[in-house]
From TrEMBL:
Residues 15-146 form the HTH marR-type domain. Gene3D superfamilies: Winged helix-like DNA-binding domain superfamily/Winged helix DNA-binding domain. It comes from the Bacteria. PANTHER family: TRANSCRIPTIONAL REGULATOR, MARR FAMILY (PTHR33164), TRANSCRIPTIONAL REPRESSOR PROTEIN-RELATED (PTHR33164:SF105). GO terms for biological process: response to stress. GO terms for molecular function: DNA-binding transcription factor activity. This is MarR family transcriptional regulator. PROSITE patterns: HTH_MARR_2.
Length: 157
């Protein structure tokens, strides 16, 4: 039986910048998905936005921004190309000051086309990284988001 050494008991110490590492991973994954989704005429971020509108709409831009975890100005900027293509409309809301975002039939059709490409990207990424690693990554991300959300909620009090 092997004796424990000092290096066996030393806790892991983070090295490097977490933000940099996450951004590097995000860029690599974005490139992967974009390669599959781009032939549909959408960027991966536009596919995500269009999917949210199709699945949740019609809804207020502020509700959409909250669900997607983006600020209002980012949402407005990202909606513009979808509106210009006729895939999304921004119509009147419940009162004169509100608006509702809704997918058009062309937007639903575009989302269905892009969803097939997205599915291929998802399967290819799962195959490349392995299901076990993907499940662990999702769990780690969910856990981190829960901790960060709880900290944000405490700061608001």
């Amino acid at each position: 039986m092997r004796q424990k050494t000092a290096t066996d008991t030393v806790a892991a110490v983070p090295k490097g910048c977490t933000n940099l590492k996450l951004r590097q991973l995000s860029r690599a994954v974005t490139r992967h998905y974009d390669a599959y989704v781009a032939p549909t005429g959408l960027k991966n971020t536009q596919y995500s936005l269009l999917s949210h509108v199709v699945l949740l709409g019609p809804l207020k831009p502020s509700e959409l921004a909250a669900r997607m975890r983006v600020d209002a100005s980012t949402l407005t900027r990202n909606l513009q190309p979808l509106v210009a293509q006729g895939w999304v409309t921004q119509g009147p809301g419940e009162d004169a000051r509100s608006r509702l975002v809704e997918a058009t039939q062309a937007g639903r059709d575009k989302r269905a086309e892009a969803q097939r490409a997205w599915k291929q990207a998802q399967l290819a990424l799962n195959a490349r990284l392995g299901d076990e690693r993907i499940v662990a990554l999702h769990q780690l991300i969910d856990d981190c988001m829960a901790v960060l959300d709880a900290a944000d909620d405490e700061e608001e009090l």
